[in-house]
Amino acid sequence: MKRESRFLFSVLMYTYSWQIRINKDPSSVTLIQNHRNQMTSPFKNYFGDLHNHNQVGYAQGSLDRSFEIARNHLDFYAFTPHSYWPDLEEYDGKITHKWKNGFHIARSRWPEVVELARNFDQSGQFVTILGYERHGTQEGDYHILYPDLQGDYELIEDLAELQTFARQRGCLLIPHHPANRLGHRGFDARKLAPEVSPVLEIHSEWGCAEHDRAPFPYKRHTEGGRWTKHTLQYYLNQGHRLGVIGSTDDHLGHPGGYREGLAAIKATELTRDALFDALRNRRTYAVTGDRIELDFFLNDQMMGQESAFTKQRQLKVHVRGWDEIDRVEVLKNGRVIHRDFPVDQQPDHRAWDKPVILRFEYGWGPWPALGWSGTADWNFTVNVEGGNIQEIQPCFTTGPFDEFRRDQILEQTSNRLKVQSFTALKQQVDDWSQKAIVMRIQGDANTKVSISCTQPSECQLTQTFAELAVSNEMLFTRPFPWESAMLHRIVFHNQWETEFEFEDSGEGEKDDWYYVRVIQSNGEMAWSSPIWVNKK
Predict the structure, then answer these.
(1) Contact call for residues 177 and 206 (beta carbons, < 8 A)
(2) What does the radius of gyration of the chain's CA atoms come to, in whole angstroms?
(3) 395: closest CA among 76, 47, 121?
């Protein structure tokens, strides 16, 4: 589909890159995100996790480890310990005791949570947010987020009283895994207080709640899948005005686990006040794993906003992916009204004026059914000759759980990355054992990429861009069935970035809502918050 015209948004995407910095502890080196504006813009995209668990509660993983992992690769982080359950029933076996004991642990260790949040918080570089989770059999689960680090801990059982407290205190209450059935921890939208619950967690390790037949079904918990009446599209059709975010709800103490969900927030700066302002105004979107950059406008309104009635609507979309973009869809009142197919663009193997995307994926290893176990340590270097690494994205999965190992980028320059990581086919979402580093590289057909491993074994792979434009290539660390890796086929610019505009109209007989859905060829997705056009 050939694009006839291009446009500049009033709010443009920012460039996403990484750099090394020294922490307050000079003996430790971690990774942070450095955001650069391509052009003057009031908003930037920030990625983080607002719903995550560890052993402070009834999950796994130390408190310190969670904060360290979050700071290594996220912009913001809310640790949300399991804290209370007003209508908890007595269940079979020891599970009720496990939950109640987890609530006791969360209460007793809350001062530690506050102290670590304060110690790790660094405005402009990494923002911590205090919060905790309230279960609800009848009303659904919420996590409560505080606008500051004062550290109060109000376990208010009645939902209406909690909402009143949130209004007075400036807190946000985020409903999550909403698509469970009513009375089975599904979100009861009849009790929604939109001023304190402006956004819904549409995607997490539970799955996706866009609609009942969406990708990423609810299958990793004991509830019976997704209930139509508790999905985003149904809520929107009922007149609820909810923005969307993702977050992991991970129970292995690993914030931001790849493919489990992230919150994308459009804020003026990386501060707690700016993040909360964006959440309250629904300047948010959700991604599954890849940190897809997404802008969506209707006339002069951006995602999350409302517009007075206008018959003519000019819609604009801009997407920058981290893989080949299969399609970008614009939905109106739950139906697709426009599709863009970057995947159908013919890659021009002679066009090297824009960066290409290259993914190095590693971690295929012994199948557990073979009876082999163990975790593979990876230490490898990526060298680029005749090209420049402009941006990178780490794709570090939650599993395997390990208290002492860390996924880290130890060194980064314009032509070199040094990575320490570990993989195993256990404790993974959907048996996805691989991790990855994805790079945007400016180069040409002669650019060479070399992967040099010292662990799990000494091995090397070198390919030119000309070769990678035609085929991917594998790196085998040892004979079958030991670990292997892959340099993916490169993705050219016209397949990883797209922008388009089109017109729509409405008669004003009812409110209309629009949102954007992005699907990459590797299955990773993004959803914008809606834009509403009011009826006459």
Answers:
(1) yes
(2) 23
(3) 47
User: pLDDT per residue over 400-430, tens digit each?
Assistant: 999 999 999 999 999 999 999 999 988 777 7
**pLDDT over threshold 90, residue 53:** yes
Give the pair of three-digit tokens for residue 349: 């193997």
Quick one: pLDDT at residue 425? 84
**What tokens appear for 457 in the block?**
């074994």
Cα-flanking dihedrals φ and ψ of residue 393, to 5°?
-135, 120
| Rounded mean pLDDT, 25-42 | 40
* Burial annotation 62-83 (CB, 10 A radius, 16+ → b, else e): ebebbbbbbbbbbbbbbbbbbb
CB neighbour list of residue 512: distance below 8 Å, 6 or more residues apart = 332, 333, 506, 532, 533, 535
In the block, residue with structure tokens 């995602």: 303
Phi-psi region of 239 (alpha: psi -120 to 50; beta: other; left: phi over 0): left
Give the Cα separation of 236 and 448 in Å (integer): 49
What local confidence, expressed as pLDDT, does residue 500 receive? 97
Confidence of residue 41 (pLDDT cuts 50, 70, 90): low
Query: What is the DSSP code (8-state) at residue 212?
Result: T
Closest CA relative to residue 521, chosen from 326, 322, 357, 346: 326
Structure-token pair, residue 287? 């991604």
Does the pLDDT at position 14 exceed 70?
no
Long-range contacts of 335-342 (CB under 8 A, 24+ apart): 337/504, 338/500, 338/502, 338/504, 340/1, 340/498, 340/500, 341/1, 342/494, 342/495, 342/496, 342/497, 342/498
Degrees, nearest 5: CA angle 81-216-345: 125
Best CA proximity match to 263, nearest among 48, 76, 52, 78: 48
User: Do 418 and 451 touch, CB atoms closer than 8 A?
Assistant: no
Considering all CA atoms of the chain, what is the largest pairwise distance in Å, rounded to the nearest integer? 69
Strand 82-84 relative to strand 127-134, pairing: parallel
Average of per-residue pLDDT across 328-337: 98
Which of 248, 262, 524, 264 is closest to 398 using CA atoms? 248
Residues ≥6 apart with Cβ < 8 Å to 326 = 341, 342, 343, 519, 520, 521
* Under 8 Å between Cβ of 456 and 377: yes
Q: Which of 414, 406, 346 is nearest to 379 (CA)?
A: 406
User: Which of 94-103, 193-202, 453-462, 497-506 shows the lowest mean pLDDT across its residues?
Assistant: 94-103
Q: Is residue 19 predicted with pLDDT exceeding 90?
A: no
Mean pLDDT within 348-365: 90
pLDDT score recorded for residue 267: 98
Outline where DSSP puts E strands in 197-353: 199-204, 207-208, 243-246, 262-267, 284-287, 293-298, 301-302, 306-307, 312-320, 325-332, 335-340
What whole-number distance in Å separates Cα of residue 135 and Cα of residue 138?
9
Tokens 């304060």 locate to 118
Taking the C-alpha atoms of residue 209 and residue 183, their distance in angstroms, rounded to an integer, is 17
